[in-house]
Amino acid sequence: MKNTDHRVRVTRMLIRQAFTKLLQQKPIQSISIKELCAAAGINRGTFYAHYTDIYDLLAKIEQEMFGEIQEALQPLLEEARPLNPVDISTGIFQCLKDNSDLCIVTLGPYGDKAFAAKLLELGRERCQASYSQYFRRATPEQISYYYAFVSAGCIGLLDRWLQDGMRAPAGEIARIAQEIMLSGIGFLQDRQEETP
């Protein structure tokens, strides 16, 4: 039984690697099952034993990744302080780094734009609840706008990090995100003062 499980894991890994490589070159709608199977070194029957089509493959990969992110974040969400999201952000950025192959293609030019929207939704409820506790005079609409602005900035920061090959540690990117969120333009001013 363990041999079967190992073969299944290896097959899925080969399919995922071939899929992410192809997604770096062309949009998902231009990838055929035949082409994917040739790139993965498997036959079509093997592909269909695991997935119904290309979109099912993408959905299952994303679902697996979101499960990993939620699992990693659960203990952090239970302990997190309202306006200190560095631990949560570090957890998210680390999971994304661990799945960098998928992130590069899903957030890249041929990626699934719905993926970014799913990332934004991941922390919406928790963050908005924290903001409303701390900023009691802010309306729910203002908090929603703030979250939309900040989360879109985090997606931009993630995109920049991906372009840099994710060389910086996840914790450093999370700290940069927090500094920008809390300081705004002051983030750049602080850097200017540090430069001799």
UniProtKB/TrEMBL annotation:
Keyword DNA-binding among record annotations: yes
Matches recorded under Pfam families: TetR_C_8, TetR_N
Keyword field: DNA-binding
Domain HTH tetR-type stretches: 9-69
UniProt keyword annotation of DNA-binding present: yes
Protein name in the entry: DNA-binding transcriptional repressor FabR
Annotated GO MF terms: DNA binding
Matches recorded under PROSITE patterns: HTH_TETR_2
TM stretches of this protein: none
InterPro entries linked: Homeodomain-like_sf, HTH-type_Tx_Regulator, HTH_TetR, TetR_C_Firmicutes
Lineage, highest ranks first: Bacteria, Bacillati, Bacillota, Clostridia, Eubacteriales
DNA-binding region: 32-51
